[in-house]
Design a protein that fits this description.
The protein is α+β, with helices and mostly antiparallel strands and 276 residues long. It has two domains: 184 residues, no CATH class; 77 residues. Helices cover 46% and strands 14% of the residues. It has ten helices and seven strands. It has a seven-stranded antiparallel beta sheet with strand order 6-5-4-1-3-2-7, sandwiched between helices. A hairpin with a 3-residue loop joins strand 4 and strand 5. Helix 1 runs antiparallel to helix 8 and helix 9 runs antiparallel to helix 10. The protein starts with 10 loop residues before the first strand and ends with a helix.
């Protein structure tokens, strides 16, 4: 059996199904210092976010909860999915967030023992638009016992299936590696940039610029936009309060981003009207 991860191998990666220009404004709203790099082959658009810090050590929240909150926050109000990979001394797993749909995830013990449900893999494939036959067949072994596959091998197997959708991680960004090693590996790659929180005003301005440049800009006005904004606010406020009560930093971020997107939707037409 392969060696299992040790106590120093806690880490996480956020894989976004869009190019860095689209990911950058959403990443600002996480209020974390992150490294952003392209992670897509020529026929696919992917980006990777590598945390600079280790909030799972600072806030007492486990790495899987932190990553789940980040993925949910990034996926709010965008058209691309976010896949969060995480691992620690005892387990490894992923969470996939896409829009307002309930996130889907899977967990393995460090020795590779599967703890999730088969249906999660089928939902994962459907939400990423993978082949319902060939790709699902390739994912199926990840849900079966295998004495030669530890948690790291399971995540590598998951990533191998995504190569067909254009994912191509930069060298050195390997699940199971310590967070410090991931950070150093991506920092030296061409095209890597630092995403750092610079305040709500700059973050919202960047978000507005991206919306304007995209195909949805002309449609984000009027009654439907206001209704969506109100719904996001209605969902974001209680989620933020729930996260605060549980001291769950990741879910606080997700709730806060929902509130920001809701307020942005309500104010979009007014702000753009002033600019014109």
């Amino acid at each position: 059996m392969n060696a299992t991860p040790g106590t120093g191998t806690v880490g996480a990666l956020l894989l976004c199904g869009a190019d860095p220009d689209a990911v950058r404004p959403a990443a600002h709203l996480l209020r974390e210092r992150l490294l952003l790099a392209p992670a897509g082959a020529e026929h696919g658009r992917w980006s990777v976010l590598v945390p600079e810090g280790k909030p799972w050590l600072d806030g007492g929240e486990p790495v899987d909860a932190v990553v789940a909150g980040w993925a949910a926050a990034l996926a709010v109000g965008v058209t691309w999915p976010v896949l969060g990979l995480w691992w620690d001394a005892d387990r490894a797993g992923f969470t996939l967030a896409s829009g307002f749909r309930r996130p889907v995830g899977y967990v393995w013990l460090a020795d590779g023992t599967p703890l999730g449900e088969d249906e999660a893999m089928r939902t994962f494939a459907a939400r990423l638009g993978l082949d319902p036959v060939l790709d699902v067949q390739a994912l199926e072994p990840l849900t079966l016992p295998d004495p030669d596959a530890d948690g790291r091998a399971r995540l590598l197997g998951l990533l191998a299936v995504l190569v067909g959708s254009g994912l191509h991680l930069p060298p050195g960004l390997t699940p199971g590696e310590p967070a410090d090693r991931l950070r150093e590996a991506v920092r030296v790659r061409a095209g890597t940039e630092t995403v750092e929180w610079s305040g709500w005003r700059d973050a919202v301005r960047a978000e507005l610029d991206v919306v304007d440049a995209g195909p949805l800009g002309p449609w984000l006005r009027g009654p439907k936009a206001r209704l969506l904004g109100a719904a996001q606010l209605a969902a974001g406020v209680p989620l933020t309060l729930w996260g605060l009560r549980r001291r769950g930093g990741g879910w606080v971020v997700a709730g806060t981003v929902l509130v920001v997107h809701g307020a942005l939707g309500l104010l979009y037409d007014r702000v753009r009207g002033r600019r014109q």
